[in-house]
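Thread: quick sanity check before group meeting

JM: Hey all, I'm pulling together slides for Thursday and realized we never actually wrote out the predicted structure for the chain we discussed last week. Dropping the sequence here so it's in one place. If anyone has concerns about the input, flag it before I start.
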Amino acid sequence: ACVNNAMAISFYLLAGFGPDPLTVLADGLAATMGITVGLGNWILSFVIVLAAFLFDRSFLGRATILSLLIISPGIDFFMGIFSPIVTPESPLPVRIAFLLAGFVSLSSGASLYLSMRLGIAVVDLTPVMVAHKTGVQFRWCKIVFDVTVTLLGFALGGVFGAGTILAALGTGPMIHIIRKALEERLPVAD
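JM (edit): ok, ran it. Output follows.
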């Protein structure tokens, strides 16, 4: 799921319609600090995991550690692999295909680790914790989180667009739908 998420994020970036919300913030950090988006993502991820470690360690698990180690370098890796195939200058149908593949891939990856209860990947750690503490459904917490990090990222110089809006408003509900279907079919880890 972590490799899947890294690839999905790179698809968002390469399609040129705006990245997923957390990557808008990572992009803003990268622009501000003069680093790669992957490194900006890793810095954000580390801060989020550290905060979760200090406030409530029960949400941390294998998926959290793996996402911290794999997703950020994976973004830069997949950007290198797929940049000869798609860029913001590619034909519109190719860009749309990559955007939709990124959306479905990111939602599916998150649904899988949430369903298997192997810990929460960094990108969803904050909304999952808020949902658990407040009793508000995850999908709504995810939307609020995504809109918030998009605005922060944009304020720092991160780029956003139609793809970001799709991710911010659609990923939480799509995860909810896919997760429901998965939990009916998969064995659940305790």
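AS: nice. Helices lie at 2-15, 21-33, 37-55, 62-82, 92-116, 122-134, 138-155, 162-185. Residues 104 and 174 are 8 Å apart (CA to CA).
JM: adding both to the slides.
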